[in-house]
Amino acid sequence: MEIKSEETWNTPNNPIPIFKVDPVVVLILSLLTCSLYLIYWNLKVSEVLNAVAEREIISSPIAVFAGCCYPINGYFFYLAGKDGLPAAQKRMRLPVKDDSVLYLILGIFFPMLAAMIMQSEINKLY
Question: Dihedral sign, CA of 16, 22, 24, 30?
Fold first, then answer.
């Protein structure tokens, strides 16, 4: 009797949606579209962070409403900084850091700056 074992060392765990954008482009598009680009950006970032964490951290309705309402935007960035980015850092085998309070404050007062910082962290995945 022959025992066959499948090799899984070269198959990815979970395909991550590709969303690599220059952080300056995030700022420029957000300014040009009066923050409408941040709604699209929130949706794509939530897809990436959910795929990296292999569970739903940020739902699509929260991502859409976060682009429209600033208190929810702070909550979006808090969730991303608390659960999403640490999962990405674990996946990249980097030291895990919790910047959730920073993202919360920036998400409420300066969402475009928070988006730029988060995009630069997400770009490290690729």
Answer: negative
Is residue 69 within 8 Å of 34, Cβ to Cβ? no
Q: In whole angstroms, how far apart are CA 4 and each of 8, 13, 17, 23, 107? A: 12, 21, 32, 47, 51
Q: What is the distance of C-alpha 50 from the center of its chain?
A: 8
Task: Identify the residue whose tokens are 């850092």.
Answer: 89
Could you read off the pLDDT tens digit of each residue along the chain, which spans 126 residues? Answer: 667 666 666 665 668 899 999 999 999 999 999 989 999 999 999 999 999 999 999 999 999 999 888 889 999 999 999 999 999 999 889 999 999 999 999 999 999 999 999 999 999 988
What are the extents of the domains in the chain?
A: 23-123
| Cα 49 from Cα 1, distance rounded (Å) | 44
Residue pair 52/84 in contact (Cβ under 8 Å)? The answer is yes
Smallest Cα–Cα separation from 122: which of 35, 67, 58?
Answer: 58
